[in-house]
Design brief:
- The structure is a single chain.
- The chain is α+β, with helices and mostly antiparallel strands.
- The protein has four helices and four strands, in the order H-H-H-H-E-E-E-E.
- It has a single domain, classed as Roll (Thiol Ester Dehydrase, Chain A), CATH 3.10.129.10.
Length: 115
């Protein structure tokens, strides 16, 4: 995924693709692209919450800790507000790594399209 993301976006920052450069910056592995990590929010909305009738209107994220290549992450979402008039959900999100450390937090505004 890391290599594909670099190819798709053109982001060739060596922190993400060169282990020796990452080591020079005091990381033992390459750091994943923050936006690659955030891209899993699309799966959260489009597959799970609310699913196929979703349309993401906005995303705010804060990258709290680095995610590394070969980390496992869990994406969580909680509906904290529902606006029936505008068919809009406000979803609080968090992404947690395999050690239980929160690496990203934020919120999404997700519209629910008519079926």
């Amino acid at each position: 995924m890391q290599n594909a993301f670099s190819e798709i976006t053109g982001d060739i920052n060596p922190l993400h693709i060169d282990k020796s450069f990452a080591n020079q910056k005091n990381f033992d592995r390459c750091v994943c692209f923050g936006m690659l990590t955030a891209s899993f929010l699309s799966t959260l909305a489009g597959v799970y919450l609310p699913g196929q009738n979703s349309l993401i209107h906005g995303v705010e994220v804060k990258m709290l800790k680095p995610v590394f290549v070969d980390d496992s992450i869990t994406v969580k979402g909680e509906v904290v507000e529902k606006n029936d008039l505008f068919k809009l959900l406000i979803i609080k999100i968090s992404i947690i790594n395999q050690d239980g450390v929160k690496v990203m937090k934020g919120k999404m505004n997700v519209g629910v399209l008519d079926e």
